[in-house]
Specification:
The longest helix is centred in the middle third of the chain and has 4 residues, at 92-95. The relative contact order is 0.26. This protein is mainly beta. It has one helix and 16 strands. It has one helix at 92-95, and strands at residues 3-8, 13-17, 22-28, 53-59, 62-64, 70-72, 74-78, 84-90, 102-106, 112-120, 126-128, 136-141, 149-150, 152-157, 168-169, 171-180. The strands form three sheets. The chain has a six-stranded mixed sheet. Strands 6, 9, 10, 11, 14 and 15 form a six-stranded antiparallel sheet that branches.
């Protein structure tokens, strides 16, 4: 049984969904309240604006490769402004071993299961991204919860037939950035 844990490397607010057993990553950007010039005799009035997350992204906190080898990445909420683009990357520095592969450590044997990662584009094409230092795995723009580019990653255990029976676990780290165009 191969278990694969996904841990985010950024500080975010997480919400758990009992039905889907996933961690939702949320980024909150608070606009500065608009202040009007107060009348001479009145104290200034500052209206509070509710905290609205800029986006909420769905990346499971745990994944078992025994239950499938693909991981879709999508938004649960998209409040990106027009012209903003959200990029989701794998942090290869934290995720990969020295050989550029994802290693899952055996619980009993202390043996490693080596894993290749592929990135699928929205047109169905794919490429291996395991040895890239910081590959983009999803790109989102305002107005849609579906990625405009990429959005699914898959995992393949190398030389699975020669691995000893064990439970192998490892971590995959993600980073996020927003750009304005």
């Amino acid at each position: 049984m191969l278990i694969f844990c996904l841990i985010c490397s950024v500080t975010v607010t997480a919400y758990a969904s009992e039905i889907e057993q996933q961690t939702v990553i949320s980024y909150t950007k608070i606009d500065e309240p608009i202040q009007e010039e107060p009348a001479e005799s009145e104290p200034p009035v500052i209206e509070e604006q509710p905290n609205v997350p800029l986006y909420e992204i769905s990346i499971p906190s745990e994944m078992s490769l025994n239950n499938g080898s693909t991981l879709p990445i999508y938004l649960l909420q998209n409040n990106l402004a027009e012209g903003q683009t959200l990029y989701v990357y794998i942090d290869g520095t934290k995720s990969y071993a020295g050989d550029g592969l994802l290693h899952l450590r055996g619980a009993n044997t202390q043996e490693d299961a080596k894993v290749l990662i592929n990135r699928y584009d929205t047109d169905g094409s794919y490429m291996a991204v395991t040895q890239l230092p910081c590959p983009t795995v999803a790109v989102f723009q305002s107005g849609s919860i579906r990625p405009i580019k990429y959005g699914t990653i898959s995992f393949t255990v190398i030389d699975e037939d020669n691995l000893a029976p064990d439970t192998y676990t490892g971590n995959l780290y993600f980073t996020f950035s927003i750009t304005n165009s």
